[in-house]
Amino acid sequence: MNPLLSRLQPYPFERLRELFSPITPNPAYRAISLGIGEPKHAAPELVKQALTAALGTGLSGYPATTGTPALRQACANWLQRRYGVEVDPSTQVLSVNGTREALFAFAQTVIDPTREGATVVCPNPFYQIYEGAALLAGATPYYAPSNPARNFAVDWDSVPPEVWQRTQLLYVCSPGNPTGAVMPLDEWRKLFALSDRYGFVIASDECYSEIYFRDEPPLGGLEAAIQLGRTGFERLVAFTSLSKRSNVPGLRSGFVAGDAAILQQFLLYRTYHGSAMSPVVQTASIAAWNDEQHVIDNRAQYRAKFAQVTPLLASVMDVALPDAGFYLWAAVPHRWNGSDTDFARELLAQYNVTVLPGSYLAREAQGFNPGQGRIRMALVAETAECLEAAQRIVQFIQSNP
């Protein structure tokens, strides 16, 4: 067996099942889960119609790994509308089976494990695929902590020069999971300068970019590059998906765009990896990328939901509206002495609501775990269910002074 498999950590939801295994939830309440970030809003009718229409002809041939020209053009058109960024769809866009698959495969493409001390830098807390991708590529993860004093922006300045010297790949996530923080242009300027100096590649995970609560949409990596005069997107690849934007996580559809030379090598890897997207899914994806009204409607649902739930929870715990995304990143009240696991366990037992301990989304590094003492709540269900969960959490905290 591949010895690198032994370096993988249990996934947060495996740890959650173990944490909850001895608990019998209060039967007086129906189960409500805020634990998993799986979109629950209805899938757009136009996507379902496109899927149905494509079934007649879309299963009779092998798909190209690149994606059809029509799909790549639809993705390029969306980048132009959303960010004002122009890309060549034939060389700077590739279809992928969701960002999770692509973020993992990307590390296997760009990491050279024969170079001494191969390192992948990622935020902390983070999406665990970053860590697993690094480990299975033969690299060592380095965890850059988020700073609560800066709206949970990542403290890139805390990464020592000797770590940057060994770094081959940097994962960034903006809007962030779980904090919802959005990287401003000055932060991108800093990372581009570091990339120029040390030669590492930047993978920009932007799958939450279309769910935001400010008037201005989140800045994207390619957009930042253009604003800073980096028209060739040197050592930069952006990853995005339809899962959150269009409420179709089961479609497993997204795309990557950026540095053409890197994408050429990524395509080579993916050709052997068997990563081609079904023609049926490609047809439905074109319909989704070409339509913006369902995205606007979806964003309005999240804004209305967060406007009701956030103040309710803020009355009893330290939590605020994020920049973007569909998570609330809340501090555990003092009564639990910073134990996010105790809070989650007792909440389930007393009120049958599931939340995810923040420490499960982070690693202890530089002497502390930046997720410790926080919980992540995914407000992905309909508003009424999320409100009921919030009301139970309020009751739970008030009944445990």
Give a structural overview:
GO terms for molecular function: succinyldiaminopimelate transaminase activity. Strand 7 (201-205), helix 8 (221-227) and strand 8 form a beta-alpha-beta unit. The termini are far apart. The protein folds into two domains: 3-42 and 294-398, Aspartate Aminotransferase, domain 1, CATH 3.90.1150; 46-290, Type I PLP-dependent aspartate aminotransferase-like (Major domain) (Aspartate Aminotransferase, domain 2). The strands form three sheets. Strands 2-9-8-7-6-3-4-5 form an eight-stranded mixed sheet, with helices on both faces. The protein has a three-stranded antiparallel sheet with strand order 10-13-12. The protein is of the alpha/beta class and 401 residues long. The chain contains 14 helices and 13 strands. Helices cover 40% and strands 15% of the residues. It has helices spanning 12-20, 45-54, 69-83, 99-110, 128-136, 161-166, 185-198, 221-227, 242-245, 260-273, 279-289, 293-314, 340-351, 383-398, and strands at 32-33, 93-96, 119-124, 140-147, 153-154, 167-173, 201-205, 236-241, 254-258, 327-331, 353-354, 356-357, 374-378. The longest helix has 22 residues, at 293-314. Helix 4 crosses helix 10 (260-273) and helix 7 (185-198) crosses helix 8 (221-227).
